[in-house]
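Bumping with the actual sequence this time:
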Amino acid sequence: MSSAWTRIARMLGMTIPTSIAVMAMASGAAWAQTTYVLEGSDTLTDVVKASIAASGARLSYNNAGSGQAEKDIASLSGANLLEGIGPMSRNFVASVLSAHPTWQPTDANVVCLDAPVVSVKASSSHCKDITVPTPITTGAISELAVILGGYPASCAGKTIDQCIIGATGTPLSPTVASKATTAECSDPVRLAALADLVACQKVARIDHIYRRDDKSGTQDTWREKLGFLRWCNGKSEGPANLNNEDLDPIRTPCEASDWVTSGGLTTGSIGQSHCSYSLKGAAVAAPLNQSCTAGDPDITVGGQTYSCTQGLVVALSVGDDGPNNTYAPGQIPADVTQSIGRRVGNDLSGFFMGLAGLGSVKDVTWLATGTTLNTISYAPTSIYPGAYLLSRRLFIQRATDVQTTIAASSTLGGQDRVDQENLLFGFMSNKCSIAPICTQYGFVPPYAGLCSDSCGSPKENGNITCLPGDPGVGTPKMNINVGETCDNSHPCVDSGSVCAIGAGLVCI
């Protein structure tokens, strides 16, 4: 951080002697004023910001996702900075834990408990329960997994009950799971599964199912628990909603960026998400690799007419306008989890559904609620023992060896940054400090006895807080569109196979 001397120098166009600059730094004043950036889970946005304020740590928060926190801590490709702690809605992946076994979290790292939910508009007719076989133990595929990730080509000619996506315990086997190609996401079995969901929701149709983007640990949880590999909408790495792919061949109306909310909320703006041209009048069609915005006129390509549409599955990377999503124009957006709840709850038609954490249904005034899964609700009594399928822990991860590296480097923040990180970590790992914040923002405190218990006490027997931390499921590279440059990493949507990088090579 610049000292007062160097800031004055820049303003006046002066050159300050090195000795003076050194004296200013030596005083420690520069460190004392520094606020360090921390990156991590969007789900934990409110919890982290409240904890920073309460702890007094000189940190600011960038809710770039659990995957970004992991990259930053482990110095993986795509890291934005080096940090010694990171809020994450999943554990480190197996490869990271194998390389750094001391990073394995314990109950001390558990901040709150959460449960991703299928959010629907609260009404007397909304879908109440969704049956979801547990592929992690049975290998069985569910209709919900097919709706989100396509019907596996390996199951062609089989009914959904006959389709097994992997041996027991390995449901994500890429040799049998859907690769979310255009064909797999257009399969009649997927259309039939969607029709069943529409019937459960008791609406004319479902236009959009909103999800978190690829950097989010929440979307990893959906894929892990439901046992599918990729999403039908394609690559969604942000940083903005418009950067995300729109490859889902089930086409629905493109949502305009401006709307008027219901429930007495003010007029505001939802963040425009990616729309594409597709064959006019076709409910199922591969979209063109050409973006558009709601209201754009039809175009003609090769004698065919195309209109502006959007896919069924839509990924969001940034939240909508308004503090806490109250949609006051010009305000700073809140997190994506809350934005998904707001979109679903404020949709007058009931044509939207969402896939997000408890924060998406935490406030009844949002008019969004969640379905049960296999008749089990996301109530705390079901989350503590892990009875609800999507029960999960939210972590504040820490790598003390990385902090040692940071402490030794003035360019990384030195010991001052480590001190600020540990100030926050100490607050968030204290169950008495964090329990009321978890409750305030719609999450479940780590212990059923709030902060009076600990792992080993009878009341916490079987509490997922106290179980060994299973490795998280990392995000494979999602599909990219026809005509996009091959990068030896992302697979092509037509085949689901990775296209080797080369001069001028594109997906075809």
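The tokens above came from a reply further down the thread. Residues 1-29, 258-268, 329-333 have pLDDT under 50 and may be disordered.
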